[in-house]
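Homework help board

Subject: predicted structure for assignment chain

Our instructor gave us this sequence and asked us to write out the predicted structure in token form, then describe one feature. I got the tokens but I'm not sure how to describe them. Can anyone check?
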Amino acid sequence: MIWWIYSEIYDVFYLDELPCPADKVIQEPRLVSIINQKKAEKKKLVYCSLGTVTREFQRDCEVFFNKVLKGAQENTQLHFILNVGKHFDVHKLDPLPGNVSVFDKVEQHSLLKEVDVMINHGGINSIKECIVNEVPMLVYPLSPYWDQPG
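My token output:
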């Protein structure tokens, strides 16, 4: 299946195959436990990730992740899986509410099969993977230069 995006702002086309990797199972035991527990409790799972931008845009990511934590405090009926990446200092996060689990790496394509919604910055890989897995997205662009405007 060929998929494309057109951006009026940059007058750019993206044309590529949608990613369809072979089915993998989630290997991280803590993540598997959280998914199973929340499903048993019939809690919705919200997955939040900024992909690779956490490496170079620490301050933007810190502000964004702390906004997600505030949203989690206000929505205790949901459970948030926060993927901060290997390069983000978790000590920059506000205190974690009980309904937030933080990881520095997840198998995103496999995890998307388990979650109810994904919050991302509009990176093309996350957008494509959400489409393939039919996961609704809340897209919060951090930059007009490296996100998908529109």
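Reply (TA_rk): Your tokens look well-formed. For the description, you could write something like this. The chain is about 30% helix and 25% strand. That's the kind of observation they're looking for.
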